[in-house]
Design a protein that fits this description.
3 domains, five-stranded antiparallel β-sheet, 54% strand, six-stranded antiparallel β-sheet, OB fold (Dihydrolipoamide Acetyltransferase, E2P), mainly beta, SH3 type barrels
């Protein structure tokens, strides 16, 4: 059990039999009365978010998730298959668990799986991934890095704004948190 005032972003707690990840934390001190803590929580099984307010003296049940490094192998309709880096077993994961992370998933990418009682609850991608540009406008002599951007379609199907000097076939680094171009790989 942890005090609600110790629940920070990323902490996983159990409330009413459901597992929630803390997404946002606000400590509110009223002029009169006791302090309150407002938490924005994401349900790890269903995926929806809620906001709950707790008195600062309340306690929450802390949940430890098992972390495993795994390598992405392939997808089969709605399931994605990962290989555990230690035991080499294949772990099926439902597509909706990744959400927008599907846009950055390439064969052989190493990710971190968060598991509870043998079930995958979340997948954490690396901060940057290398992807190949499959389609974009032509690059002309004189285009510079500071000149502007153009849309480029990457190997996974996602569209990213890239500098004018890049052409199809080049590999770039993309930030998985924002979906922004970082640099040429």
């Amino acid at each position: 059990m942890i005090a609600v005032t110790d629940a920070r972003k990323g902490t996983v707690v159990e409330i009413d039999g459901q597992l929630y990840a803390v997404m946002d934390y606000h400590h509110i001190k009223m002029g009169r009365g006791s302090a309150q803590v407002r938490l924005k929580l994401r349900d790890l099984r269903a995926g929806h978010t809620i906001e709950r307010t707790f008195q600062s003296a309340e306690r929450l049940k802390d949940v430890e998730l098992e972390r495993r490094w795994a390598q992405y192998l392939y997808n089969d309709e709605d399931l994605l298959y990962f290989m555990d880096q230690e035991s080499f077993e294949q772990i099926p994961v439902s597509g909706p668990i990744l959400g927008d992370g599907l846009n950055y998933l390439t064969e052989g990418l190493t990710v971190q799986l968060f598991m509870h009682e043998g079930k995958v609850l979340a997948v954490e991608l690396p901060i940057t991934v290398e992807l190949k540009i499959t389609e974009t406008g032509p690059a002309y002599k004189g285009d510079t890095a500071a000149g502007g951007t153009k849309p480029a379609i990457l190997e996974t199907g996602i569209t990213v704004q890239v500098p004018l000097y890049l052409s199809p076939g080049e590999r770039i680094k993309v930030d998985t948190r924002t979906g922004a171009f970082i640099e040429r790989a």
